[in-house]
Specification:
Strands 1-2-3-5-4-6-7 form a seven-stranded mixed beta sheet, sandwiched between helices. It has helices at 56-59, 68-81, 99-110, 115-121, 132-141, 153-161, 181-190, and strands at 4-14, 17-26, 29-38, 47-53, 85-90, 146-149, 166-170. The chain is built from seven helices and seven strands. 31% of the residues are buried. The protein starts with a strand and ends in a 29-residue tail after the last helix. The protein is α/β, with parallel strands linked by helices. The protein has two domains: 4-92 and 129-202, 3-Layer(aba) Sandwich (Rossmann fold), CATH 3.40.50; 93-127, no CATH class. The protein binds zinc ion (ZN).
Length: 219
């Protein structure tokens, strides 16, 4: 298991409610992982949780090419409403390849490759994400087991492989829009994601700012 150090923490008021935010440092990684905690998770089982890998383009630039920001937003909304829960914000951009190379993958997509083929053409494995630091963070938090919010069975397996007890998978889908629908379909058809659009939860994205269906720069 990877070594993580609980470096600092504070109470943070947010749009969703107040969370305890804990920063972890990991040996050999210049980026700090975060645990964003609602309620008392220590000693608890089946804690509602999301292991979320950072997405600068989606979360900061509000890119419409993926659904990361909306999934993160939904995770915060859900744990704020639960008795307790935790979002692990993991610093591994672009399924682990980093931001600069992720932009190269996006450029390939503009030439007609889908997300899986673009990664392969550039020589990256489909998914370089790891979760041993997540296991170490949950252990530090005293979380016994988690109910994982994801549509990706491979992520459940990845977390289990790296030492996390996942009791069940909780479907976690935000209604797609015109620009990310193709990306979501690729994830379903080629990466084993499981979802049913009837489970989709409406996006909290501000309405009336733009209409994605009016844009034509789809993948
Ligand atoms: Zn993203």
């Amino acid at each position: 298991m990877s070594m993580v150090l609980r470096y600092s923490e504070c109470r943070l008021p947010t749009e969703y409610g107040a969370f305890q935010v804990i920063a972890y440092r990991e040996e050999g990684n210049p980026n700090e992982h975060l645990a964003i905690v609602h309620g008392d998770v220590a000693g608890k089982r089946d804690v509602l949780a999301r292991a979320h890998s950072e997405c600068f383009t989606g979360e900061i630039l509000h890119s419409l090419k993926c659904d990361c920001r909306e999934q993160l937003d939904l995770a915060f909304r859900r744990i704020a409403e639960a008795d307790c829960g935790v979002v692990l914000y993991l610093r591994q951009e672009g399924r682990g390849i980093g931001l600069g190379d992720k932009l190269r993958v996006y450029a390939m997509q503009q030439q007609g490759y889908d997300t899986v083929d673009a990664n392969r053409v550039l020589g990256f494995k489909d998914d370089l994400r790891r979760y041993d630091m997540a296991a170490a963070m949950l252990e530090d938090l005293g979380v016994e087991s988690i109910a994982l919010m994801t549509n990706n069975p491979a992520k459940v397996e990845g977390l289990r492989r790296d030492g996390v007890i996942v009791t069940r998978r909780v479907p976690h889908l935000v209604e797609p829009h015109a620009l990310n629908r193709g990306y979501l379909e690729t994830k379903r058809e080629r990466m084993g994601h499981v979802y049913d659009l009837r489970d989709a939860i409406p996006s909290a994205r501000p309405l009336g700012v733009f209409d994605p269906s009016s844009m034509h720069d789809a993948e």
